[in-house]
# Entry
Amino acid sequence: MKLTPWIVIPTYWTWPSSAAARPESGSFDHPTPLDGESTLPRLLQDLNGQSDQDFRLLILVGTAHPSLGTRAAAHVSDLLRPYQDRLSSLVMDWTRLERLQSVLSDHGLTTAGLGLESYAGIRNLQLLVPHILGAEAVVALDDDERVEADYLQRAISQFGPDARNPAVLGLAGPYRQPDGGVLLPARERSGNVFEDKAIYINQAMGGLMAGGEGLQPSPMALGGNMVFHASLLKQTPFDPGITRGEDIDYLINARMSGVTWWFDAGLSILHLPPHHYDSSPYQRLRQDVMRFMYERQKLYLFGWSQPDWLKPYPGALLGPDLEAQDRQALERQGTPALWAEYGEPDSTLQEASARARQLAPQYAGFAADWHRMMERIESDQRLRGSLAAALDWAGM
# Structure
């Protein structure tokens, strides 16, 4: 019996480039201006050409501010229109999110960790919505990618009753760069782990690719090339406390619940991010400081300190000297103007430390609430029907 997966694609939108007032409550690496060129259509074209056409499609419309929600959803629907007769799709926007949250609240279930303004909130919808609609597997892609015609067939080949390894509940593959390689551009080693991050990522990826065609345990996963078995998405959520790097954080969350993440060197996508929409490098550095301080604190709470299964990356950025490395990177890459906008190194470190101490202990309770919610949805057909109606999905 073959699985029918959901392919889920988040899209990230910000104000038109001509907008004068641009309030932002969400922070993404390279959101597309509403008057800019989207990378989504070329991926839709690739999905339309998949050798295995038995799948459902979910588009998650992330926005830099809730007031953009209606326009962004309409724009995404326009992008989907040429494919609507061939791709069975659902657009998850702010309106559907509010209806979904209302039904969950009415049944005494958590709505925490769900949203369209953060990576973790969007990724949790990536798990929840397909679960409501009976998904057997979820294939996560990003809208700035291209895939080969046999991608989906390979992505779900490790799942289902005929799978060669029933222990595989989470699967990752590599990003290929425009030159066809899998390594990131990296400068000479500086001795600072943040400035050398690409070196550590390349070491990890090089080791994984050297393993050949067989599956192997992985210390990292890339969010636009992850596959989730239905049993995994029920028990493990994305952590709302993470600011970015939610993909590797999910791998850690899964490991905390006893699930190893696996890597398939042949499950590749072509990554073509629109660099002209990139956010500030210093802003991304600051988010990385928040991220790794938080990650280290969460690992400590579970009794781990730089575990071997996270080496060489992200383990290299989780060491006991992290605060000193943080400060050095913020001082080297910052300027008085950037510090005035985003905060000086001292205030950033204080904020990151306080945030980690406050939020990291909350993950265990959130994960327990998530599991109860997902179990309830699975067992209560009336609730599942109400949630599907809130999503306006008639394909159950």
Remarks:
- Residues 6-279+363-391 form a domain with the Spore Coat Polysaccharide Biosynthesis Protein SpsA; Chain A fold (CATH 3.90.550.10).
- The first helix runs from residue 40 to 48.
- Residues 66 and 94 are 7 Å apart (CA to CA).
- The chain has one domain: 6-279+363-391.
